[in-house]
Amino acid sequence: MASAALELIGFFLGMLGLLGSLVSTVLPFWENTAHIGSNIVTASGSVKGLWMECVHQSTGALYCETYNSILALSSDLQASRALMVISLVLSTLGLVIAVLGMQCTVCLEGSGELKKRVAGVGGCFFLSAGFMTLVPVSCTTNKVIQNFYSPTVPATLKFELGDCLYLGMVSALLSMLGGGMLAVSLCEGKEGGGNRRRRYGGGGYPYPVGSGGVPVVRNPTTLQMGGISANSRGQTLIRSGSGSSGGVHVKPVAAGYDVTGYV
User: Does residue 258 contact residue 207 with C-beta atoms inside 8 Å?
Assistant: First the structure.
């Protein structure tokens, strides 16, 4: 069973990843103007994000304007918007589902394996959200680096990596790490179910079968089953013949069976 501390750490890592992804999505600091060459001393610069473009002056003033047309945007920017929004939705769902399935909460208490599986599903949501955040951040980083080192791009059109790209990368890793910790509950829940099936499948629940296919029962009193009975020592008594003239043969319990707790 996954420890409650591991689930708690995974939950907080996933929540930090959600907050970081939210900040990266909203703020416009994805691309910053590169001050190189003849552009090294300027009175203003620009930053770009998913939703707006801002111009900052040397006096500290910042003027932002949202993109007026969605269809006029490039396809990679539209895809980045969609992936970041989907990531936030998945992280929110993972946060809610993980709260229901964690061992330190009272939700679904007494459900056994169901509670652990719910926590594991929440971890899978966090894993998917982290991957969704990682894709647009990585693609934008690659595009900025290629344009920066391209000799065909003018110096005034070159940009550097913004703070939101670094924050998005860290947030994606935190979400995936936290989701992996929560997903351990789902894996261990499946293994536990398989162990119980192997335990009870051979002899039939709730009584295992001894030698000769005779049920083995440990009970303080003798259990009568037609011509077969079991005494308090766990031995199988087989009555041969009929009436009082029949003899009683004692068969020991098959080795390796521990029937304590089956009745």
Answer: no
Q: Other C-beta atoms within 10 Å of 252: how many?
A: 12
CA dist., res. 50 & res. 53, Å (int)? 8
Give the C-alpha separation, 150 to 171, whole Å. 29
86 φ/ψ angles, rounded to the nearest 5 degrees = -60, -40
pTM: predicted TM-score of the whole model, two decimal places: 0.67
- 3-state SS record for 237-259: EEECCCHHHCCEEEECCCCCCCC
Please state, in angstroms and rounded to a whole number, the distance separating the CA atoms of residues 12 and 178: 7
Largest CA distance in the chain: 117
Q: Which token pair is 257?
A: 């069976």
**Spatial separation of the C-alpha atoms in residues 228 and 237, rounded to whole Å:** 6
Radius of gyration of the chain measured on its C-alpha atoms: 33
The mean per-residue pLDDT over the stretch 234-254 comes to 48
Question: What amino acid is encoded at 228 in this protein?
Answer: I
- From residue 13, alpha-carbon distances to 8, 80, 116 in Å are 9, 23, 18
Specify the amino acid at residue 251: K
C-alpha–C-alpha distance, residues 33 and 49, integer Å: 12
Residue 248 confidence (pLDDT) above 50: no
Burial pattern 33-46, b for ≥16 Cβ within 10 A else e, equals: bbeeeeeeeeeebe
Q: What is the pLDDT of residues 28-65, one digit of tens each?
A: 999 988 776 655 556 678 888 999 988 877 777 788 88
